[in-house]
Amino acid sequence: RLHLVTWNVGTASPPPDVTSLLQLDSLGPTMDMYVIGLQEVNSRITNFLSDLAFDDPWSIFFMTVLSPLGYIKLSSIRMQGLLLLIFVKHIHLPFIRDIHTQYTRTGLYGYWGNKGGVTIRMSLYGHSICFMNCHLPAHMENTEQRLDDFEKILEMQFEGENIPSTLDHDVLFWFGDLNFRIADYGIHFVRESINNKRYSLLWDKDQLNMAKKKEAFLQEFIEGPLQFKPTYKFDLYSDVYDTSEKKRKPAWTDRILWRVKSLCQHAAKEGQFSEEERTISVTLNNYISHMSYGISDHKPVTGTFGLELKPLVSDPLVTLNPEGEWSAEHDVLINYSAVPEFPSSAWDWIGLFKVTFRHANDYITYAWVEDDEISSNKDGKQVYMSAAEIPDVGGEFVLCYYSNNLQSIVGISQPFQIQPNRTLIGRDLTKEENSWTRKTDNLESCEEF
């Protein structure tokens, strides 16, 4: 289950709550993956430079919301105001590989990143998946420029060997502030149709729908029905369309589309795929806007999908687990084994993480798999972690194996307990007792006075 968000946040700070946006209050099964595409994230030079050095406020915000629920930030990419974040459940980490990011500038003839696309691709259980967050040129008259820019973004190449081109991925998700408008109809007709919830009257004049009828490369993209109000342009903190002097005509600028490669091949061959041949399918479960969010003049749009995959990869590259009881009173051991074809490196490491860790660099401590190795045989290897690095307070943790060659976590242990340091607890209790005695003595002195 994949939940995809697109939102032009208009340089605003995160809202107080995103429970409904992320469907965290849903009674159904939890999501396996969140894909969050933002446009117009605050990119004033001071903000942008600080965000390059540290995580930006939006990334921190979503990590704070999702990490306690068992999601980690798998990857992210930012180009000025464009930001793309992907969060996944821990259980899927060993089966997500070959993660690559890229961006394409289209503003100012390709020299400026205020418009363009940011992309993350990966292998998910052996299937190639690509996510593309775009911000295309604005204004009614720029339809051709929007199409030209999107074609340029599609031509973007990832760095590395044997990585498919964008359109060669098994599934490609295309979303963002695509800025297509409603042509021909006047503002009064558009607003009246919206007020009467007769959205279908406007579909034929939606510029993206019109372009899909003419442009062959767009016809391969699928979109759910636009059964929600146009998401642009609103007065801030309201559900009232633009009352400024410009009185912008409402439009479905914020969209989510997808393309399944096997369906395109099927259409080209005019054959019939059997169930055995179809290894991946995408089902749209809902496609809605969220009117309650008013921090910008756009309303966020979400698509919830079911991805049905026949796993081409079913075993983790690395299996690992803690040896014996762990505490900070002694050095501890980690057992791990890798599949024969695993491309190990001297720069691989095993990290100790809290179960609510936020991303791959959010470790408590780590051990180098070569420098800290203490034994090796055909069944596996052992590395150690120093007692000095183990948290005294204990708690629930996981171990993760990070592959330098693959730039991702390729193995994760089951959650396990680290016992509190009894020596430290005894010392702390003694300190607390002494502190309480002093406070009591002082109180008695005050009463005597």
UniProtKB/TrEMBL annotation:
One Gene Ontology cellular component annotation held by this UniProt entry: plasma membrane
Protein name, entry field: INP5K phosphatase
Any one GO BP annotation for this protein: negative regulation of insulin receptor signaling pathway
Coiled-coil segments on the chain, per record: none
Entry similarity comment: Belongs to the inositol 1,4,5-trisphosphate 5-phosphatase type II family.
Inositol polyphosphate-related phosphatase domain segment(s): 1-313
GO molecular function: inositol bisphosphate phosphatase activity; phosphatidylinositol-3,4,5-trisphosphate 5-phosphatase activity; phosphatidylinositol-4,5-bisphosphate 5-phosphatase activity
